[in-house]
């Protein structure tokens, strides 16, 4: 197990097992494979990822707070507890901006 991964076979909590960092984005791998990844991100308010495209669908679930998710130029505002699927081969900004 890498230092930036959740331990397999042990329970964990999205809310408790990653910390926010001032003016930063913190990420931790849940599963990392050639066929796709599942990652947990913690965005400080105002932080963003650049737009990109992946060959597979991506799921965003907002654990805490609020975020703007941009898919193919269209803005989606998600609150804690909400989910959106970003389709593969379509430009998106995952967790684009914590608000």
Automatic annotation (TrEMBL):
Protein's name according to its UniProt entry: Cupin
Cupin type-2 domain ranges (all copies): 40-93
Tree of life domain: Bacteria
Species in which this protein is naturally found: Labilibaculum antarcticum
Residues forming coiled coils: none
One protein family per Pfam: Cupin_2
Gene3D superfamilies: Jelly Rolls
């Amino acid at each position: 197990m890498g230092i930036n991964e959740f331990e397999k076979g042990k329970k964990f909590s999205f809310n408790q097992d990653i910390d926010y960092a001032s003016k930063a984005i913190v990420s931790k791998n849940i599963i990392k494979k050639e066929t796709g990844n599942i990652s947990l991100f913690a965005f400080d308010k105002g932080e963003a990822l650049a737009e990109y495209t992946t060959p597979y669908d991506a799921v965003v679930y907002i654990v805490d707070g609020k975020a703007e998710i941009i898919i193919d130029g269209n803005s989606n505002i998600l609150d804690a507890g909400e989910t959106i699927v970003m389709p593969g081969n379509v430009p998106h900004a995952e967790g684009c901006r914590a608000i």
